[in-house]
Amino acid sequence: MTTIHDVARHAGVSAATVSRVLNGHRTVDETLAGRVRAAATELGYSPNILARNLRKSQTNLWAVIISDVNNPFFTSLVRGVEDVGQQAGYSVLLCNSDENPDKEASYITAVLAQQIAGVIISPSSRPDNMAQLVEGSRAVVTIDREVQEVETDAVLVDNERGAQAATAHLIEQGYSRIACITGPRKVSTATSRLRGYRQALRDAGRTFDTNLVRYSDFRETGGREAMADLLDSGARPDAVFATNNLMTVGALETLAERGLGIPDPVGVVGFDELPWAELVRPSLSTVAQPTYEVGRTAAQLLLKRLENPDERFTVITLPTTLNIRDSSRR
Amino acid sequence: MTTIHDVARHAGVSAATVSRVLNGHRTVDETLAGRVRAAATELGYSPNILARNLRKSQTNLWAVIISDVNNPFFTSLVRGVEDVGQQAGYSVLLCNSDENPDKEASYITAVLAQQIAGVIISPSSRPDNMAQLVEGSRAVVTIDREVQEVETDAVLVDNERGAQAATAHLIEQGYSRIACITGPRKVSTATSRLRGYRQALRDAGRTFDTNLVRYSDFRETGGREAMADLLDSGARPDAVFATNNLMTVGALETLAERGLGIPDPVGVVGFDELPWAELVRPSLSTVAQPTYEVGRTAAQLLLKRLENPDERFTVITLPTTLNIRDSSRR
DNA sequence: CTGTTAGCGCTTTCAA
DNA sequence: TTGAAAGCGCTAACAG
Q1: 3-state class (DSSP) for residue A178
Q2: pLDDT tens figures, B253-282
Q3: How far apart, in whole angstroms, are the C-alpha atoms of residue A149 and residue A146?
Q4: CA distances in angstroms from A24 to A15, A28, A53, listed in the order given
Q5: Cα distance between the two ends of chain A
Q6: Where residue B308 falls among pLDDT bands split at 50, 70, 90?
Q7: Mean pLDDT of all residues belonging to chain B
């Protein structure tokens, strides 16, 4: 291992000067700086990151805490984060909270212990976790979901409008008993999307019927059970809007099991794109989120916050796109 | 920040003793150890990981270098790694080489610079990268693909047998002109799976026809183009075996575009499970890999290697499962 | 079994 | 503008 002292000796300067040059402090004479850079390349020097971390009490790591690595929504997002982070010299730690507040809490503890530079998080339903994270961390950007109790930079999508567009589309296709399978009551995306659904019904002069609404868990089995329950309960839905991709898959499975055709007698629109939505037969109508963009934008906010810790918080809301395919077109 | 010295003072011992107790060295008197533990909890002490990292010249981080985060094969694998790693006190860095040897090289450099404790990698086609990684890293486990030139612990699946079973199944269903879309010539999974395909043909007394083989890139568009080329070339395939999930998707897209029915006139079997294989119509026959298990096993090998750097290398080969669904059944 | 001591390699005052 | 020196908090070699 060549150290900063080796470079210093080789260039005939002190270690402090080498440090200054390599960190881009402009206060060094150009001649010396040149000598230092030459020595560094000649010796193949690269600074010991661990020593730097200790000295600065901070790593060059980011953490992304998401609720499900298996959900393509998040993987695409992670790429967006990674692309920006790597550019700026950060490596990305992936943490998978699994929609489980305890697991989230343990990751937050780990993140604080590691002295991670910045955190991008899709928060679970426990606001205390977020409070602790924000308290102990240098920079936090919230994605996907809002947390009322804690203020941070955030990147969201226009959930309400997306849900409204999806529901309005189903209405316009002549469906009359449109069900909604949404996520946990405490998760903002679940409630916003439900609100959009409700708004579309109201706009169309329809009544909002709680018999047609199910609160589930954003998972495949949850969607499956919610759909079964809707069919068995006598609510007689002729269409369903599911507020995330996995629950949509679950709903489709139930419909297939029951031998119910799509889009007739039952129309389907899902929130979130499925990677192979075109291959599913009939092809699936979705409200698509700009997932990669969400990740990229969050990473950019994080970068800004790291540079400028005292700036006011920004919240960016990105638009969704309604992709009308065969599952809702009759 | 409470430091080890605070705890030492509080417990009336030296910092070294505190360190010993907290690291589980058994050479400390139980009375003292108890006092230390009491002091530590009372003060809410947690060791500074950055200092420990510097001192030990090693982080408590693992890196997983994979070729595509968007591929569900890898995300499930990452979970397996993460579950084991977290248990043992490691955090997992996710690196996305994107099937690009240059990107892989840059991640390897980063991993070495970070002094990552252990690396799990699905190597690209550039053996030099692996050589450099193995040279500079404490522990490396290879997954998914073999690299001839470099010896490491490894977790593989029985690609040849899986491919053979898939092809034999197509033969048994009465398909006579079975094509194979495989990956890059330099990637072992591509060649092993092709070998299995070939073996099945031989076993059935069929001739191996290179006109029915395409080397592609393990990506969706690659599979799409390869399928189109097969159809346009006059090779007249009546079935296709694609050697990974994304290329299978591509092939399905081409077949749909051309209005060719599945399983008639064209049968399809893919390697790797698709997350919603059941929803694709017709449902897709696949050779499934135990992805989560691959990750878990690799992590366990890594743990072992870290404990025991001089042990002989182990290579574990896990079995695949042929899931026969509608796309190949006529 | 325990304490003293000496760094790990870097950044950053502080003084020149 | 530069260098000397201190020290981030920890672990491990060594001595007792």
Answers
A1: strand
A2: 999 999 999 999 999 999 999 887 777 888
A3: 9
A4: 14, 9, 17
A5: 69
A6: confident
A7: 94
The conformation of residue B313, written as its DSSP 8-state character, comes to P
- Give the three-class secondary structure for A263: coil
Residue nearest to nucleotide D13 (CA to C1'): B16
Residue where the block lists tokens 């878990």: B296
Separation in Å, CA of A4 to nearest CA in chain B: 15
Q: Give Cα B317 distance to the centre of its chain.
A: 13
Q: Phi first, then psi: give them for residue A206, nearest 5 degrees.
A: -90, 160
According to the model, what pLDDT value does residue A275 have?
A: 80
Question: Which residue does chain B place closest to A72, by CA atoms?
Answer: B70
Whole-angstrom distance, CA of residue B177 vs CA of residue B236: 7
Residues in A touching B278 (Cβ below 8 Å): 253, 256
Comparing alpha-carbon positions, the chain A residue that sits nearest to B280 is A280
The CA distance from B254 to B258, in Å, is: 6
Q: Give the Cα separation of A86 and A58 in Å (integer).
A: 17
Tokens (6 digits) for A304: 């800004």
pLDDT band at A124 (very low <50, low <70, confident <90, very high): confident
Report residue A3 as tokens.
């150290």
Rounded, the Å distance between the CA of B159 and C1' of C13 is 61
Instruction: Quick: pLDDT tens for A212-228.
Output: 999 999 999 999 999 99
- Looking at the DSSP bridge assignments, the partners of residue B318 are B157
Q: Tokens in use for B194?
A: 């092709």
| Dihedral (Cα; B205, B210, B212, B218), 10-degree rounding | 120
Above 80 in pLDDT, residue B124?
yes
If you measure CA to C1', which residue is closest to nucleotide C3?
B14
DSSP E strands in A144-216: the ranges are 153-157, 178-182, 213-215
Q: How many residues does chain A have?
A: 330
Q: CA nearest B108 in A: which residue?
A: A91
Which residues of A sit within 8 Å Cβ distance of B? 46, 48-51, 53-54, 57, 59, 61, 69-70, 72, 75-76, 78-79, 82, 86, 91-96, 106, 110, 113-115, 249, 252-253, 256, 274-276, 278-281
Q: Pairing mode, if any, of strands B321-323 and B285-288?
A: antiparallel
Going from the N-terminus, what domains does chain A have, and what CATH number goes with each? 1-47 (1.10.260.40), 54-157+292-320 (3.40.50.2300), 159-288+323-328 (3.40.50.2300)
Q: CA of A202 to nearest chain B CA: how many angstroms apart?
A: 33
Q: Put residue B57 in one of left, alpha, beta given phi > 0 → left and psi -120 to 50 → alpha.
A: left
CB B247 within 8 A of CB B179: no
- For residues A260 and A299, is the Cβ–Cβ distance under 8 A? no
Nucleotide nearest to A29 (CA to C1'): D1
In this structure, are strands B61-66 and B118-121 parallel, antiparallel, or unpaired?
A: parallel
CB neighbourhood size of A37 (10 A): 15
Query: Which nucleotide lies at the shortest CA–C1' distance from B36?
Result: C2
Cis peptide before B263 (omega within 30 of 0): yes
Question: pLDDT tens, B4-40?
Answer: 999 999 999 999 999 999 999 888 899 999 999 999 9
